[in-house]
């Protein structure tokens, strides 16, 4: 029985590590911040969960599994928030190459707002990028 | 089991090195913070791997600390550090108030 758990654990650990490797390659080779984020999010959620499941299957004690669940909860609540803020900062500081985007809903909305603003003929206020 | 763990450790090492190269190259601090997240994931995975290898749970609280550390770092850079080092002047975006209108 314990050998079954160990084999499952080894498979999980190997899969998690290979996702990390894929992320390392992607982060190095992809062209801009958003595509690098796409690569970087693989080990942050699925890779980490696989590693934690692997460790949990190997250790199999209540205390350790509780700690692992805590780590998973931390990571899964914080990773989307951090990714959102990094993506937002990238867009606002013009690190995103807009030609490469398939969908750019915020860009369309901004263009529309600019047009409305110009139509009303209000005096141009200084606009900040931050 | 041992062989698999060593292979996984090798993969994690290569991934961490690639992330380090990206941290060194940049070009912006946002690229660096994304690569730093990958490096932290590799670190968490590596510590987990060591715990699985030696079958002890002593280092598992470190994983929780590292998971939160990555979040704090990314949010801090994204919120406060991202536009301070822009060498080329970015063209302005529409302000927040206008989006809310």
Overview of the molecule:
The complex is a heterodimer of chains A (130) and B (101). Chain A contains 4 helices and no strands. Chain A is mainly α and 130 residues long. Chain A has one domain (2-120). In chain A, helix 2 (33-59) runs antiparallel to helix 3 (62-92). Helix content of chain A is 78%, strand content 0%. With 101 residues, chain B is an all-alpha fold. Chain B has one domain (7-81). The mean pLDDT of chain B is 82. Classes of the chains: A mainly alpha (130), B mainly alpha (101). The interface between A and B is large, with 63 and 59 residues.
Most extensive protein-chain contact, per-chain counts: A-B, 63 and 59 residues
Average pLDDT confidence of chain B is: 82
Shape, principal axes of CA atoms of chain A: elongated
Give the beta-strand count of chain B.
Answer: 0
Order of helices and strands of chain B: HHHH
Roughly how many Å is the radius of gyration of chain A?
22 Å
User: What kind of sheet is the major sheet of chain B?
Assistant: none
Number of domains of chain B: 1
Report the total helices of chain B: 4
Report the β-strand fraction of chain B as a percent range: under 5%
Distance between the termini of chain A: 57 Å
């Amino acid at each position: 029985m314990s050998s079954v758990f160990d084999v499952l654990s080894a498979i999980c650990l190997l899969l998690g590590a290979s996702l990390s490797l894929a992320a390392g390659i992607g982060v190095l080779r992809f062209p801009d911040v958003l595509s690098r984020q796409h690569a970087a999010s693989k080990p942050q959620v699925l890779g980490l969960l696989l590693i934690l499941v692997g460790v949990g299957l190997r250790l199999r004690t209540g205390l350790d599994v509780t700690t692992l669940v805590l780590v998973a909860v931390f990571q899964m609540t914080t990773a989307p928030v951090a990714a959102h803020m990094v993506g937002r900062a990238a867009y606002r500081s013009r690190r995103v190459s807009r030609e490469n985007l398939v969908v750019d809903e915020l860009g369309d909305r901004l263009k529309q707002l600019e047009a409305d603003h110009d139509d009303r003929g209000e005096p141009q206020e200084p606009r900040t990028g931050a | 089991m041992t062989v698999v763990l060593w292979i996984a450790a090798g993969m994690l090492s290569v991934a961490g090195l690639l992330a380090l190269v990206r941290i060194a190259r940049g070009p912006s601090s946002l690229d660096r913070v994304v690569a730093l997240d990958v490096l932290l994931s590799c670190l968490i995975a590596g510590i987990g791997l060591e715990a699985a290898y030696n079958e002890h749970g002593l280092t598992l609280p470190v994983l929780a600390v590292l998971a939160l550390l990555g979040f704090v770092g990314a949010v801090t850079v994204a919120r406060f550090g991202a536009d301070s080092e822009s060498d080329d002047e970015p063209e302005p975006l529409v302000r927040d108030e206008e989006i809310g209108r």
